[in-house]
Amino acid sequence: MAASGTDRMVVVPKSDHRMQRVRNKTSDLLYSIFRYALVIGISFIILYPLFLKLSVAFKDKQDIYNPTIYMIPRHFTLDNIRIAAQVMDYMPLLANTLLFVAMTTLLTAASCALAGYGFARFTFPGSSLLFILVILTILVPTSTLMVPMYLHFRSFDFLGIIRLFTGRDGINLLNTYWPSMITAATAGGLKAGLFIYIFRQFFKGMPKEIEEAALIDGAGGFRTFARIMLPNAISPLITVILFSFVWQYNDTFYSALFMSESPLISLKVASLPAQTNQLVPQLMGFGSNSGMKVDPNYVAMIVDTGILLAIAPLIILYLFVQRYFVESIERSGIVG
Amino acid sequence: MRSMRLSLKSRRALLGLAFISPWLIGFIFLFATPLLQSVRFSLSNLSVAPNGYVLEFVGLKNVKDALLVDAAFNRILVDSVWAMLLNVPMILFFSLFTAALLNQQFKGRTMARAVFFLPVILASSAVAAAESAGLINLMGDASAVEAAADGGASFNVVSIVRMLADVGLPMAYVDYIVEAIMRIYDIISSSGVQILIFLAALQSVPGSMYEVAKIEGATAYESFWKITFPMVSPLILTNVIYTIIDSFAGSPVTRAIYQTAFKTQNFGLSSAMSWLYTLVIGLVLLIVGWVLSRRVHYN
Residue B147: which H helix or E strand, with range? Predict the structure, then answer.
């Protein structure tokens, strides 16, 4: 049928042609119904857990055992949210997490942009070999470096400087922000290799003439980068900042390794069920040693609400930037 | 003033080094050094001292312990690799399919895209851990959860298996399809980035190619296999590698390595495990990369 495409237009009688058009239209319609069914189905699978949590968050205790309630609770309440926020110590926790994540994200974006630009536009001895090493950092699993990194930050001493001046054995940086800040600033944080790759691909695709013009006008290398290249690199910047923010926010590996005692949402969420079991009786007015056990279904409800509180900032952020997110990736040159 | 005497070329080289210097410093001190150290650790018995640590060389004892003495490591490693081999084709197929779907023109496409990439934002091991714990709370204990999950699922599985077997598919394929259906949520939630990469690739295929194909009388099916597929095939390799690395990142092996180090304080054994694990991943990546790169079409 495919081969006769050109003949069809010339030879085939008019009535057949009309039939063909009707047939095409029907198959188009069927296809679009099929497509919508598929898109809606997959969307439902993705959104269902979220809807379930939303429903639970506003549900009153007395609705737990009511089998006639599907999604929309009969008795609305904000108690769950209040208690979950109390259990998590939500507001200080959120402020702390956002501050931490914002700092590492900015450092990561800055150091990776510099490195990406350096690899895209300059040749120096061993530059291609060094770029292969960037790819290697993506490929080596983080757990391989875990123990040395841990010990390294436990007695941190850059080139023995601290020992030289104070005679002590380095400082313990565990449970401070420093390990993450240092790795982020040196483009070695979470998936930094991928970000360097994204930046390099983008800068490679930019016309060289812009920089040459800047050079002739007397701008130095860093000035050219800050004034001309970076303002044009909005799409990879958005991509990297978003991914870095989200992955850092969700990260449990590095945070558990370096800052197991710091108030961060990702760590708090993981211990939420235990916390809830312990704290809810107290919040309800029973002593901590009273041996009171709260209804496990109620605990599950609080845990679900807590998870919702934990992911809410990301969802709100995503609502604002999802448009740029998809568009910037299409233009950021991941594809190269 | 000295820089004036350097040639333009070496000045550019120095400037380039200056740009990558943050990364280079980080690489030397926070990647290369720990990497070498971890090789040393894996060959030693490490005991933590008040300030620093003491190493005692034991040769390949740790590797032997990981493979022969440790009760679970072997099994976890094989299971993870096996799960990865099953997951990668499913994620790849699903993400290519979804990207092709989201690249078409239809009403509500922006919204569909927003929803489909939501899992990228929400994929969090912490949330997953809390969720399963919440469920355990709800059900009493872990075995009850498993029993309930099996009970709920087996009803569907039986009907699906019957249906597919009636069609005449070989049992091995049926197994695979059923597996895919059971894990549809996992697959969807771990293919967000891959969809983005494929989508970007699809956008870069010139529309004129499709027009020509249409004029020549190609069907949608034919133009997919003759135009779309070859044009995105380089990205298939990228996506396979990304998926493999990603599937290893949160695998039970990583958890086992972490626990060996920080629960049982056996740092040497943990390093040996992580090196065995790295070698396995490296081997898988090499084989997959070699096989795929021979088939990829570069334009």
Answer: helix B142-167
